[in-house]
């Protein structure tokens, strides 16, 4: 399935590695002009050399919790926002985590994602709309031992997705929650190292590649996905896989 996003601009938060980097690559390969954020210039250099010379992808240094910095980045306006930056930590049982660590998780996964979405929407509305993809998780909908902050933050973000759709779906804002599956990234390495719940017991070789979620997210940016707007989508849903051109899984 060839997807053409030529003429579109996209912003990917936390685009220097993992699912974010794969999304940067897939969007740029589809012809979008991509901007991605990373927390330091070394991370941008590493990502840029992984992407190669040909792709139109520009890295900018900014922590997603830096409200003024993110405001400056989004000022130019984007057609597509991938709200990808996220953290799993603190991993620990609910009475064993510090409130500061817990609050930082919510700050990154929920409050910053909400903030960047609002900034993007302000610029999208006068242009007639745009697409926002909020990275969701099975943990948004089911409690996981040791992940109370992550579960609460992602559950909150799933509701933000619904609120955006409720308020702005009829004004051209195409918003999706997207569950990428259990994907082989640094986040899963941290989870394996913790040993705390069933996900930590999964073998690395059984995890999914970053390429399938990246493809699915690019597909969500096209009008072919209009029937899915406002939904929380799971890459493991076979009907969804068929629609976006991914092979069936067992
Ligand atoms: P990684 O840990 O591999 O990458 C996370 C990215 O987010 C990195 O680029 C990281 O930057 C960035 N980031 C973290 N905190 C901040 C911050 N404060 N400001 C800016 N950037 C930040 O995670 P994944 O690629 O696995 O996850 C990407 C998204 O997908 C997350 O939202 C995650 O919750 C979600 N997800 C992942 C799943 C999986 O199985 N991997 C499953 C379900 C959802 P840095 O390099 O500086 O740390």
Brief digest:
This protein is an alpha/beta fold and 250 residues long.
Q: Which structural category fits the helices and strands? A: alpha/beta
Low-confidence stretches: none
Largest sheet: 7 strands, parallel
The helix content is 40-55%
Give an overview in words:
- The chain has 250 residues and is of the alpha/beta class.
- The protein has a single domain (9-243), classed as Rossmann fold (3-Layer(aba) Sandwich).
- The protein is built from eight helices and seven strands; from the N terminus they run E-H-E-H-E-H-E-H-E-H-E-H-H-E-H.
- The chain has helices spanning 18-29, 41-51, 67-74, 99-124, 148-168, 186-194, 211-220, 238-244, and strands spanning 9-12, 33-38, 57-61, 80-83, 130-135, 173-179, 232-234.
- A seven-stranded parallel β-sheet has the order 3-2-1-4-5-6-7, with helices on both faces.
- The protein is globular and about 45 Å long.
- The model has no long low-confidence stretch (mean pLDDT 98).
- Bound molecules: NADPH dihydro-nicotinamide-adenine-dinucleotide phosphate.
- NADPH dihydro-nicotinamide-adenine-dinucleotide phosphate (NDP) is lined by residues 13-14, 16-20, 37-39, 43, 63-65, 84-87, 108, 135, 137, 180, 182-183, 185-188.
List strands and helices in order, with pairings.
Layout: E1 9-12, H1 18-29, E2 33-38, H2 41-51, E3 57-61, H3 67-74, E4 80-83, H4 99-124, E5 130-135, H5 148-168, E6 173-179, H6 186-194, H7 211-220, E7 232-234, H8 238-244
Parallel strand pairs: 1-2, 1-4, 2-3, 4-5, 5-6, 6-7
Helix pairs in contact: 1-7, 3-4, 4-5
The protein binds NADPH dihydro-nicotinamide-adenine-dinucleotide phosphate.
NADPH dihydro-nicotinamide-adenine-dinucleotide phosphate is lined by residues 13-14, 16-20, 37-39, 43, 63-65, 84-87, 108, 135, 137, 180, 182-183, 185-188.
